[in-house]
Amino acid sequence: MLLRHTPKEITERSALTINPAKTCQPIGAMYAALGIHGCLPHSHGSQGCCAYHRSALTRHYKEPVSAATSSFTEGSSVFGGQANLMQAFSNIFTVYNPEIIAVHTTCLSETIGDDLPQIRKKAIAEGKIPEGKYVISASTPSYAGSHVTGFSNMVKAMTELAEPTGKKNGKVNLIPGWVEPCDMEELKRLSKLMGVGTIMFPDTSGVLNTPLTGEYKMFPDGGVTIAELKSTADSIGTIALGEWCSGDAARELDSKHKVPCKVLDMPFGLKATDRFVDALHKMAGVNVPEEIMVERGQLVDLISDMHQYFYHKKVALAGDPDQLIAMTEFLVSIDMCPVHIVTGTPGKKFEKRIKELTAGMPYQVNVRAKGDFFLLHQWMKNEPVDLLISNTYGKYIARDEDVPFLRWGFPILDRQGHQYFPTVGYKGGLRLLEKILTLLLDRKDRDDTEMKFELVL
Ligand code: SF4
Q: What residues does the Nitrogenase/oxidoreductase component domain cover (predicted)?
């Protein structure tokens, strides 16, 4: 087996990561930037970084991802990349004509110390940014944080475009966090059902889940528009989903433009979706329609019908903090037991929150921020589980330990469906449970003796 040499005995490591449970900051910044209509993400660094970031996103979303690069050479690596970026602004606006360029740094340009806000000022002063076009920037050094940090930094950068007019627009800003394009669609569907007008940013629906029409569009139809981003300063409030992905941007709008914000968990599972719907209901002063209550009731029905198969099943989880917090709460609420939980993203708050959510479970819980898949595997060797939930990289562990495996999170490189079938909201909860249940029951069918092999479950 591929990971047969992973030792069961755990030794403390302080300066070595093995099989990381995260990827680099610019990937998150690039994904967020693609959620602005007419945006060309720009990677301020070497071509190799940009190629990696683009391919990481393409492999997950199965869509072409366009991005530009400052193409650092030896000279720019030593003296800084200002000249390259200034030239890039001219070339990009002339050749590709985007509405906006979203620049993020890389390890290299951060180490040199390139100051993106200063370079942008110089570009504006020298007329390199045409009238009516925009440039935003985020600092995304990969030796700090993770792809989640990069995503958050770019979403916060989007709030620079907010421009209050003094007149409220009656809408709610909805910051969805790093979820799939279909999840963003689902959140907008729920908001629409409640009669709440929203400005979602970023919004990759219609960008990274587009139909094949035979026509190539450099800038797909989806994405939040510049006009909408400007209008975020006039909204009645902001609902930010996920502290790690969306909290900073929401607080920025609050402190700069007095747009009150509520930072919630991502709406995966029953309770977190309840809180999301309740926040929309309170912020916009609308009622919850019957249609949403029916969807909720269906999820409750599935939970109660199949409870015996979920009961006290042990789960190992790896992924990003916002997703893991919501998933842990969901699993605990249906009496499953998440016993090993790892994220590669730093943050002691994560460990504290997971411990609170799992308090009272019948098993001891291992949780680690800034952890890796190697540690997760070791934990699983010491305390075996019934299910592993993680991105594609978990497949090696699942195979080695012969454990049912649910692919969920980023990246998923070897399966399809994540772009099209949401896992947020009540309907998303149904999909998650259906997938979990299928894995558990397939395993039961495989392992049951003939006496126990049932037709009806
Ligand atoms: S050098 Fe840094 S920014 Fe570039 S791919 Fe590697 S980790 Fe990412």
A: 24-440
